[in-house]
Task: structure prediction
Amino acid sequence: MAKGLRIAFMTIICLMVPAVTQGQVESLTVTVDGLACPFCAYGIEKKLKKVAGVKAVTVSMQKGTVSLTAKARQSINYSQIPAAVLDSGFTPRTMRVVVSGTVTPDEKQNLHLQWDSKSLMLNAVEGDIRERLLSLAGTGGAVKVHGIIREKGAATWTLATETVEEVRQ
Amino acid sequence: MTSIKCLRFPPPFTPSFLLIITTLFVVIPPLPSYAHEPLFGLGPHTIFKGGLGVEVEIEGEKNSSVGEKEKEYALHSEIIYGITTDLSATLALPLVLDKMAESGGIKESSSGSGDLEMRLKYRFWRHDQPGIQDAAAVIIGTKLPTGDDDTNPRLGSGSTDFTFGLTAARESLVWYYFGDLRYRLNTKDDRAKSGDRFFADVAIGIRPWPTEYLKPDLVLLAELNWETWLRNEFNGTDVANTGGDRLFFSPSFFFTIRNWAIKGGVQLPLYHDLHGDQPEDDYRFKLAVELHY
Result:
């Protein structure tokens, strides 16, 4: 009985942990070239809504951007974005993301942002931001990183860090 | 006028038959027009990969001269499918609502299905910049003799015809520029052959009120449409009162909301140089609703 209660209690605790501690690509804004007519932009809305984890798609004609927000407790599959934009007849450029996760250094002291079973190498991390991330890496604390995500070779992605927020749990 | 033309042919070709032939030859082949493309010309747009477009279009035309009058109203239904991002296929089935030819006091009219058309458009070049898309495409199409041809006037051409086209465009958030060249190769019916046609079109468009996605969007276009029509042939001989050149000025509009579009326009004749004695174009018009999903 006591063991059963402990399991039930632990299950509830796990379910109560905020989604942010699991980490995810919370939002993504892709700059799209060739976006010239609203009617044609329907294709990009339709294609990007099919990307795993995407809840909403917002197209800005004047800015030439498409912004995506993630479904609750889900992560946007950023690797599907370039193909989806190309399939809709436009050219994807910069992908700016907000990703939450935990920071881990590797043996070469490169920093990685991890969530679920995914990992992104953090680029352009220097000075104070790097020190802050290293200190958080020691504690296992969660962070929210704003930056530009890029594909470096086959299925390898990096995140050029612009700003970092510490997530209080 | 028609009775004179009648004398050029041996029996059993009656004035009615000649009227039918004449009317048939002035029918303009319908072209796929995606939203934000010229309504009477051709543009390089292809629907997104896997996308489906449905278009229903009412079009009409009236031609007349002293003692002769021709009118046609048709409903065109088109299905467009994006095979790839750059390759789309179109299937078009026209339904002629009313086709009327009147000459020398004889008036005849008919209605029914027209000739089935299939087209492929391949966008072979695209260059994207912020807020601008430049593109060029080729089109190949065929028209099958599926229309009713036992009516007066005939609704089908009775021949398998082919269209080849080349188009290029620049589209931006405010200005649109289009240009195209097309050639329609007509093949022979039992004994008659409609003259081939050459088309050249230029268009300029403006979005007077740049807008955002999901908001109502209006684009106004002005087209110049040139047509050169070679003489028809009958039993290998040129038919006198056929062929010639035409130039139209065509204002049109596109109104869209998300994946819905309404578009319409009219072709007004600026110049005619038609061989012999033929009815001249008074006007042509199109009004269409298009849905992409």
Q: What stands out?
A: The first strand of chain A starts at residue 24 and ends at 33. DSSP finds five helices and eight strands in chain A. The radius of gyration of chain A is 18 Å.
